[in-house]
Request: fold
Amino acid sequence: MQLEKNEKIVKTNNVIPFIPTGDFYFAKGVESFRKRRFDTALKWLKKAVDTEPNNPLYQCQMSIIYTETGAYHKANQLLTNVLQSTGDQYVDCYYLLANNYAHLGLLNDARKFAISYLDKEPDGDFSEDAKTLLDLIEIDDYDEEDWELDEEDELLVYQETVFHHLENNEWNQALVLLEEMILLFPDYKTAHHEYTHALFFTGKREEAIQKELELLEEDPNNLYSHTNLALFYFEIQEYEEYQRHIRALLNIYPIHEQQKLRIATTLARTGFLKEANIRFRMLDKGVVKSHISYYRWYSMTAYRLGEPAKALALWEEGCRRHPKLSEEEGPWH
Reply:
């Protein structure tokens, strides 16, 4: 009996305790990330960083997860820390920063970091992506400059007036002006999409859908076609077609704040409340506070997700900025 007892003690003493390392946590985090289980991936990466706080690789991977979940500011903080602590050894951080700033709508910052990346790694892993990003920024700038220089004043007056009518659901007034805009500025595509939107809500649903489908055929990746058709099909309860267009929107992350808001409100109006809430939180409030739709649909989303205090605060702020909003029913209705 004593011999058996001694053998058990020897066996027990030979057990080597498992102490997880940073690499163990990192590997688990990457595994979860590849399965798109982002919350779990973040938990593992945080453990890795806690174990080895000076390991830049762990922080870079964590920043990528933050980017995937739309937490661009948190991602940028990590990437900036890596660049400061490593003396530019992790050049990929420049492209990742450029990508994040583009999503935030900060195009000058995005351009700066994309150029820095290409200067340091002209043939790097992200060189083609960086060049594409710069091309997109230049196209965006060109489109804006083109309209600013070509009959700028007249177009701006139309844009502002139509915007006011659409935001206040004054569909008939918007239609009249949009018809004029299309005649005067036929290449200004947004007017065509706003026309079908207003047309649908004046009751001419079939005509609006047909016109939007024609626009989609001309440009299959157009953001406004997908937002309009998702909303139209949802309203007429053709859910199979609705799902096709709403799924396309879930993978689109535009640069412009107005386009980001368009996706957020479409998601909110068609029941994708959690996804809408994420998109609303990503918006630059300084840019979108002039939109009644921001307060109308963000407050409704917050209320239905069980945040009545936040909903009330948004609604009250919206009514202060846009007194006409107070004539509508609040998010609790």
Confidence is low (pLDDT under 50) at residues 1-13, 142-150.
